Amino acid sequence: MKKASLTTLCYIEKDDLYLMLHRVKKEKDINQDKWIGVGGHFEQDETPEECLLREVKEETGLILTSYRFRGLVTFLTDKGQTEYMCLYTADGYEGELLMDCAEGDLEWVEKSRLSELNLWEGDRIFFRLLEEDRGFFSLKLRYEGNRLAEAVLDGKSIRPFTEKPDSC
């Protein structure tokens, strides 16, 4: 039986922008050349909030002062282990943004430009849910290679993935 991975991911907001991480610096990175938020793997005995705060500080230099747990995203893939990701947004922080991140390049991106970025197909679903300010959600995303093969929102299948789900 494969072990599951526990992670956090956070989209920090400023005005009408998200802080995005362009993953271009690590070799053998499943997210290579993708644009994602900031976050990472839980350390031993960490709570989701402790992981969130530590990872954001490590990757950005920022200390979050206001954040919200938005949903649980379950990633299934034929390439590796299952990942349970705690998805957050944050709209308050202190400190100065790091100029250098070991994971990739940090950039403030207009929310209206997100569709132009090289994103995972499933990320487009949860961006829509965030934009709609949907309450807490559970989203299952199953990938075959880099292709999204299945998406299930709060127990209901979403098809096609690019259209607004009926349950939103």
General description of the model:
The protein is mainly β. The chain contains 2 helices and 10 strands. The chain has helices spanning about 50-60, 120-130; strands spanning about 5-15, 15-20, 35, 40, 65-75, 85-95, 105-110, 135-145, 145-155, 155. The protein starts with a strand and ends in an 11-residue tail after the last strand.
| Principal-axes shape call | globular
Mean pLDDT: 89
Number of helices: 2
State the end-to-end CA separation. Answer: 34 Å
Tally of strands: 10
**Ranges with pLDDT <50 over ≥5 residues?**
none
Largest sheet: 10 strands, mixed
What's the order of the H and E elements? Answer: EEEEHEEEHEEE
**Share of helix among residues?**
10-25%
- Please state the structural category: mainly beta
Gyration radius from CA atoms, angstroms: 15 Å
- Strand portion, in percent? 35-45%
Summarize the structure.
By secondary structure, this protein is mostly beta strands.
Summarize this structure as a short list of keywords or feature phrases.
single chain; 168 residues; mainly beta; globular
What's the structural blueprint in terms of helices and strands?
Blueprint: E1 5-14, E2 17-22, E3 35-36, E4 38-41, H1 48-60, E5 63-77, E6 83-94, E7 105-110, H2 121-131, E8 137-144, E9 147-153, E10 156-157
Parallel strand pairs: 1-6, 5-8
Antiparallel strand pairs: 1-2, 1-4, 2-3, 2-7, 5-6, 8-9, 9-10
